[in-house]
Each structure stands twice: as structure tokens, then as C-alpha cells.
Design brief:
The chain is an alpha/beta fold. It has 15 helices and twelve strands. The chain is globular and about 60 Å long.
Length: about 375
């Protein structure tokens, strides 16, 4: 069996989508141990392409997997994204590359149409229809958009939304997709290794360092609390691109000596951070209406589950995918920054409550871990 996974820009970007894809690759090779699996992605310059060995080594280091080069390969497709013509040519190459696969997963967002024997779309969050985007265009553009929507919705054998939140909007925006083609499956999350370290008075934020993560709001919240400033540290860890403007802004903003920003840490260092921290904060979607702008919210929350699996108590925004992860037994949810600090302080001042939440974190994280994902994916694929 040949399995293909198209993941855009994995040579250039690190984040939740990439983590999902790499861990799914691990699960697929456990389900189909004799298969050959290929990561398909764009390459904009020949010098950007690593050797297969270096690529597998890098993704294992970043995401804590143990893929090997015996049955796992990189297929980089050269092209340019400088203008619409070059983008069209590159897209055509990528779509054609799927023809030789028995099973093909579309792991990014967009309206690509693949040509394998069986095609599966991973829905991190559904795209709006092109016909919706171009509803005010001329009649020819509207017709072409409608036609592309029809091809996209009928092309895939399965759509796998990553949460009930994502599933709701997929069904709302694409009602023509048959219900039996939609199977919700939570993403694979690797359990954080227990390093047997003492918990510090420390709050962890693990997130890609992007504007839409609202990290400055968490800094504001921390700075507003005399108790947290006196007794705790706020550690912000995440990946960012070189020369990123938001990272520079964030560093200028976080002038409090109790706040540290750590960029592009190795996975082993993230593991240590989770092990040492008592709390985990997350606020993507703050000040956003989740019904009118759902794409600006966190549609699942891999880092939240990672934190829980290390006994790190989540205090997260009460919106979108976060609501599905954090129960009242293992953490707290909030809508205002005042609630965030008050709820954190309440737990921080009560050792018994901390221990209770922490034990429930370990328990609740289990249903989201890679082992559960592998079992669920296997049952879905067997019925395909």
C-alpha cells in the first residue's frame, strides 16, 4: 500500500497542523505496518530540500515521533507561488502527484482535489465555499466557483473534522456532503513524558507566536494580578519565523522580569516546561464572536491536551474547541481576563484543589492521546 499526505509548507512552517500530520503518519504506519508513506509538500528552492534522512530526523525531533526512513519518505514538489500562473502550475503538479497512491490525505486547508484510489480530507476547520466567496462576481466566475465546489465536495471519500465545533460548521457550510462521509476524530496528541520534576510556581503558554493567538492579552492579564506577579512566572514558548514582526512586538511588550519568551524550543525543552509548570493558559478567540468569526477561534487545542497530560492545569478561554477539551473537573474556562486571573489565583491558593485538578488532567487527557486516535482512525478506515 502507498499512502500519501499532502501538507503545505512543512519545510518552512512549524505548528499544530504539522504536528497533527506527523503524528497521523505514525498512526497510519501502526495500522498499515507494510505500507510506504510519503509526505508531499512544496519546495520553492532546491537548497531548501533536506535529505530524506534529515527530514525524518527533524520532524521526529520537533514532534516527538519515531518515524524511520525505511518506509517513510519526503516528496518535495518544486515550484513557485510568486503569481497566480505559477501557483496554478504548482497546484496542478501537487494534485497530479496523488494519482499513484492507494490512500491519500489532504492535511491542509483549501480546495485541492486529489486523484488517489481513496481520498480523505482532514478538516482542521472547513473552508467556505468558493461560490460564497465569489457570490458578487460576474456570472462566469460564479459558475466556475459553483462547479469547483461541486467537484470538491464529491471528490473525497471521507471528511475528518478535528472537533465537534469544526464538524458543526462543515455541515452548516457544506450541507451537500453526505452525513456518512463525515467522521469526527480528535487529533493525535502525544502524551508528555513524566520527568518526575517538582512543579514550580509557573504558568506555561505554548503556542505558535502569531498575532491571532492574542498572547499580548495573556501578558496584560498576568501584569494585572499582584498575586501572580509576586508569586509566579509566565513562560511563553512557541515557534516563529525569522524576522517576525509580531515576535519583536511581543518582546517589547513583555518587559516584566517575571515574563519570559522562549522561541523555537526543541520538543524536549517543551516537555520540561510542561513538567515544571503548574498552570497552562490559552486565549485564542478572545474578543471574538465564535459564531460569526469561528475561523478566528481555536478549533481543537493540541497544546492544551499536551499540558493536561503533564498535569498542567488548564485555565483556557470558554470558546470553540477548548470547551470540548477542558471539563469542570480538570480545569477552568473564562470569557474575560479578570475571570482568567481570578480563577488562576483561586486554584493557586488551594493546594488540595490543585491536586484534585491535576489528577483529573491526567485522566481526561487519555481520550485525546495518540493511542485513542490510532484506534479511532483504524475503525474509520476499515469501514472505508
Amino acid at each position: 500500500m502507498k499512502i500519501g499526505l499532502f501538507i503545505t509548507k512543512i519545510l518552512y512552517t512549524t505548528g499544530g497542523t504539522e504536528s497533527y500530520t506527523v503524528k497521523m503518519a505514525q498512526a497510519l504506519l501502526e495500522i498499515f505496518p507494510d505500507a510506504s508513506l510519503y509526505f508531499i509538500t512544496e519546495c520553492f528552492n532546491e537548497k531548501d530540500k533536506p535529505s530524506n534522512e534529515d527530514f525524518i530526523k527533524t520532524i521526529n525531533s520537533k514532534y516527538g515521533t519515531f518515524l524511520n526512513t525505511t518506509n517513510c519518505f519526503l516528496k518535495a514538489i518544486y515550484g513557485s507561488n510568486k503569481n497566480k500562473i505559477s501557483q496554478f502550475i504548482l497546484r496542478n503538479k501537487i494534485e497530479k502527484s496523488s494519482k499513484r497512491f492507494d490512500l491519500f490525505f489532504y492535511c491542509s486547508r483549501g480546495h485541492y482535489v486529489f486523484k488517489a484510489k481513496k481520498n480523505i480530507a482532514i478538516i482542521h476547520f472547513p473552508m467556505e465555499k468558493l461560490s460564497t466567496t465569489y457570490r458578487n462576481a460576474n456570472i462566469i466566475r460564479r459558475f466556475l466557483a459553483y462547479r469547483k465546489d461541486k467537484i470538491y465536495s464529491s471528490n473525497y471519500d471521507l471528511f475528518l473534522p478535528n472537533s465537534n465545533f469544526s464538524k458543526k460548521f462543515l455541515q452548516l457550510w457544506w450541507p451537500e456532503i453526505l452525513e456518512n462521509k463525515i467522521k469526527m476524530i480528535y487529533p493525535p496528541v502525544k502524551k508528555i513524558e513524566d520527568l518526575n520534576l517538582l512543579k514550580k510556581n509557573q504558568i506555561a503558554v505554548c503556542s505558535r507566536l502569531e498575532k491571532d493567538k492574542n498572547i499580548e492579552s495573556l501578558i496584560d492579564a498576568f501584569n494585572s494580578s499582584d498575586f501572580l506577579n509576586t508569586n509566579y512566572k509566565l513562560i511563553i514558548a512557541g515557534n516563529s519565523d525569522k524576522g517576525d514582526e509580531y515576535l519583536s512586538e511581543l518582546k517589547s511588550y513583555a518587559k516584566n522580569s517575571k515574563i519570559e519568551i522562549k522561541e523555537n524550543l526543541a520538543f524536549s525543552e517543551i516537555v520540561r516546561l510542561y513538567n515544571e509548570s503548574k498552570f497552562f493558559w490559552h486565549c485564542k478567540g478572545y474578543s471574538i464572536n465564535e459564531n460569526s468569526e469561528p475561523y478566528k477561534c481555536e478549533h481543537f487545542g493540541i497544546t492544551t491536551v499536551e499540558a493536561m497530560s503533564a498535569g498542567c492545569i488548564p485555565v483556557v478561554i470558554n470558546k470553540a474547541g477548548q470547551k470540548e477539551i477542558v471539563s469542570e473537573d480538570c480545569g477552568e474556562k473564562w470569557l474575560t481576563l479578570k475571570e482568567l486571573t481570578e480563577k488562576t489565583e483561586k486554584i493557586a491558593k488551594n493546594e488540595d484543589l490543585q491536586n484534585q485538578y491535576r489528577q483529573n488532567c491526567y485522566k481526561d487527557a487519555q481520550k485525546f492521546l495518540t493511542e485513542s486516535f490510532t484506534e479511532n482512525l483504524k475503525s474509520i478506515l476499515i469501514s472505508l
